[in-house]
Design brief:
Structural class of chain A: mainly alpha
CATH class of chain A: Mainly Alpha
Number of domains of chain A: 1
Number of helices of chain A: 11
Helix content of chain A: over 70%
Radius of gyration of chain B: 20 Å
Largest sheet of chain B: 2 strands, antiparallel
CATH topology of chain A: ABC transporter involved in vitamin B12 uptake, BtuC
Oligomer: heterodimer
CATH class of chain B: Mainly Alpha
Largest sheet of chain A: 2 strands, antiparallel
Number of strands of chain B: 2
Strand content of chain B: under 5%
Number of helices of chain B: 13
Number of domains of chain B: 1
Strand order of the largest sheet of chain B: 1-2
Largest interface: A-B, 44 and 44 residues
CATH architecture of chain B: Orthogonal Bundle
Structural class of chain B: mainly alpha
Distance between the termini of chain B: 16 Å
Shape of chain B: globular
Helix content of chain B: over 70%
Shape of chain A: globular
């Protein structure tokens, strides 16, 4: 177990965590501002990935594909918000869960109808493929490094948007007291649509970026959605900072656990048992982490009183 | 209350008559379909105790459904392969006897519900939904990587398990077994709802503070409800696995949790017979829409969406009006 392997896995965990952050940020914003639990967030991730794969197929340009993912997911998000989601803000969580579950069914089957059941492939562009030499003699895929960079830049942009701009002030005010900012003359329904579309765009971007290293297929958003839930539960629902910390924690735990737990068990038992026990325990690790966090802080690391 | 009681009796009668007629006309597939409805309704009745009575929106009930299924799969696979399950403190070779399998399924899923409930009920609202979902996924991924019992491929059982005095291989007899269990469970669920415990639980859903003020502990009430609910859903899981003679991680996926919830909602939350109606409508839709279009789930999604947005009392509510909703 060399240091290089550890560093490589830390980078992998970081890359996974950053992608989870893009997913979790939208989820936590939507919950924080509108009080809505959105199961269909994973569907928007899928929409982004499919839009990117389709545009990359037509034009061959990866940059255009990423832009398409942002635009398509934001458009789908805005459409869904205006037609369905805005009727759910005053409803209880059960109604929100059901309605957004229904949206998943519609999105998944609709996508299957449009694109078929076979996975699509989105290629990493040539200028981002291949390994790159990092200081310390680590060879690391350039594309994954780019994912980390894009994720961090978008994340920084989001923090800037929330902390420094007028829209950000309105979003934060909406979290604190929505009647008040409506009374102050802010068009609250337009703000809601905007926040929802913003969250959707981030999810779509994550879908497109991940789609280039995995396959683009129906249902791809759901495992990520559930991980994003774990992230925001750990971080505290409604907190962007919590989403970032939670995402990195989950990304690192999952990646490092998957690689090192089997090896750790191999020190103590036969290799065959160690591999299977290590793998099953590793797949449960982030949920154990979540349970542990909740035992100490029931409303997450950065959550207020929920 | 009167109209709903007549309606309920009619539903139960229809669920009994359809397979009987199918049996007379020699249509075993219809009997199997009715058995499926019965078992899924049972799972829904289980969830309804947590969801309808306790107001606990659990999106992780597939875990208990799957635990019940795996209880059956593990016991029966050891029995069919003559491999002892354990040899200490006594030799146990697994079992193909339904009553024992049910007992193990109920105990195992109740124990899981106790642990998951004790952790999840520390939170409420959205946190509770997400945490039950996450625990469900945790067990889902565990079964996928559990290579000793088939991993992702699941476990097949060659012959349906046995029950003293009943030929379970005969579809109509197996249906009768599940139907009797459903009726007994419905009766017990009605008793629970009207017991002191059920009333206190209902009160805790409506106003936590008031229940605390009169000296009851909402946490304990809810945990109890969650355990009962998980145990019933686990029993349904064991029966479902026996119906298909197959158990796989799919039983634990969160789509299953969503489907069980859909049964409850389609029928009407908190209605005793809601899950029976919901499961029947769901299976009929799956069967008929599935025959018309490969993409039938789009219609299911639209129906569900319309239901949530416009008909909030579920199908029973739409048919009978909201006479039982007191809160």
């Amino acid at each position: 177990m060399s240091l290089i392997l550890i560093l490589e896995q830390v980078l992998n965990g970081l890359q996974f965590g950053v992608m989870l952050f893009l997913m979790a940020a939208g989820l936590t914003l939507v919950f924080g501002v509108m009080g809505l639990i959105n199961l269909a967030h994973g569907a928007l991730y899928m929409v982004g990935a499919f839009a990117a794969a389709a545009v990359a197929g037509w034009t061959g340009s990866f940059v255009l594909a990423l832009m398409a993912s942002l635009a398509a997911a934001a458009a789908a998000g805005a459409l869904v918000e205006v037609t369905v989601i805005r009727r759910l803000y005053d409803r209880d969580h059960l109604d929100q869960v059901l309605a957004t579950f229904a949206l998943i069914l519609i999105f998944s089957e609709g996508t299957r109808w449009l694109f078929g059941s076979f996975p699509l492939f989105l290629d990493v562009p040539s200028y981002l493929s291949g390994p790159v030499m990092l200081p310390g003699g680590i060879q690391y895929p350039l594309y994954r490094l780019a994912m980390i960079a894009i994720g961090l830049v978008v994340g920084a942009g989001l923090f800037w948007l929330i902390a420094r701009t007028r829209i950000g002030v309105q979003i934060r005010a909406g979290e604190a007291d929505r009647e008040m900012i409506a009374a102050l003359g802010v068009d609250i329904s337009k703000l809601y649509t905007l926040v929802f579309a913003l969250g959707a765009a981030l999810a779509g971007l994550a879908g497109a970026l991940v789609g280039a290293i995995q396959s683009v297929q129906v249902g791809m958003g759901e495992p990520v959605l559930i991980l994003a839930f774990v992230v925001i539960v750990i971080g505290g629902i409604g907190s962007i900072k919590g989403a970032l910390v939670g995402a990195l924690l989950v990304g690192l735990t999952d990646t490092l656990g998957g690689v090192f737990l089997p090896r750790l068990f191999a020190l103590m038992m036969e290799p065959e048992n160690a591999a299977s026990l290590g793998a099953s325990l590793a797949s449960m690790l982030i949920y154990i982490l979540m349970a542990a966090v909740l035992l100490v802080r029931p409303s997450g690391l950065f959550g207020g009183s929920a | 209350m009167g109209r709903e009681r007549i309606f309920n009796a009619g539903i139960l009668l229809a669920l009994l008559l359809v397979p009987l007629i199918a049996w007379k006309m020699d249509e075993p597939f219809l009997i199997t379909l009715a058995t499926k409805v019965t078992i899924l309704a049972l799972a829904g009745v289980g969830l309804n105790i947590a969801l309808g009575l306790g107001g606990l929106v659990s999106l992780g009930h597939a875990a208990f459904f799957g635990i019940g299924g795996y209880a059956m799969g593990i016991l029966a696979s050891h029995a069919q392969n003559y491999e002892p399950l354990f040899s200490w403190p006594f030799l146990f070779e697994g079992s193909n006897q339904m009553p024992l399998i049910w007992l193990v399924a109920v105990v195992a899923s109740a124990a899981a519900a106790l642990v998951i409930g004790a952790l999840s009920l520390r939170t409420s609202g959205v946190y509770f939904i997400m945490i039950t979902l996450a625990f469900g996924q945790m067990l889902y991924y565990f079964t996928i990587s559990w290579s000793a019992y088939g991993g992702e491929d699941g476990l097949s059982i060659w012959v349906r398990n046995e029950m003293p005095g009943v030929n379970t291989l005969d579809p109509i007899q197996f249906f009768a077994v599940t139907f009797v269990i459903l009726c007994l469970t419905l009766w017990s669920a009605a008793r629970v709802a009207q017991s002191a415990f059920g009333l206190a639980l209902s009160a805790a859903r409506q106003s936590e503070e008031r229940v605390e003020t009169v000296g009851l502990a909402p946490f304990k009430l809810r945990l109890m409800a969650f355990v009962i609910s998980g145990a019933i859903t686990g029993l349904a899981g064991a029966l479902f696995a026996d119906l298909n003679r197959f158990v796989s991680p799919t039983m634990l996926s969160w789509h299953t949790s969503g489907e069980i919830m859909i049964f409850v909602i389609l029928g009407g939350v908190g209605r005793l017979y809601g899950p029976v109606v919901g499961a029947a409508v769901y299976i009929l839709l799956e069967h008929f829409l599935g025959g018309i279009s490969e993409y039938w789930q789009i219609f299911l999604g639209l129906l569900l969406l319309g239901m949530v947005l416009f008909a909030r009392g579920g199908l029973i509510g739409a048919l009978l009006g909201r006479e039982v909703a007191h809160d």
